[in-house]
Structure prediction request, 157 residues.
Amino acid sequence: MTLLHWALLPYRRYAQFGGRSTRMEFWLFHLFTSLTNLALDLLLGGDFAVGLGLRAEPTMVGNIVTAIFSIGSVVPTFAVTARRLHDTNRSQWWMALFLVPILGWLVVVKLFSFDFLPDWPHVLLVLGAGLAVVLGFAFVSSLPLLNARPARALREL
Prediction:
């Protein structure tokens, strides 16, 4: 089977929530939908093209076409995710963890049985270090604000 066949297979199995999906099918489908969304947006002048400075303002056609493709991919995305969870011997109801910000996403990512991910202590260590760097940068960058004098307009209030 070609890579394109694997990427399009979830569209053929559109609303089939039973059964199993391989990692190849799952990841190539998500890669395909992400790259297609990006290409449609860039070619037709959607919001992302504006954010990159390729256009002055978004075109209605770009946003509508990208939205139609995204909406058309919602059910296949849920279906392939449910089948992938079945392949890891879990219920499709584990997808409800996507509703819990950050921690739920980490649990779901771990459930997909990534061979290349380290153990949980290492993942949490890296996430904690990243959070510490972000918070440290925010603190250091806000230090000059502590010495700032209030503006004249604020003093007159």
The CA atoms of residues 7 and 29 lie 4 Å apart. The helical segments are 3-12, 23-44, 47-51, 60-72, 74-87, 103-111, 120-147, 152-156.
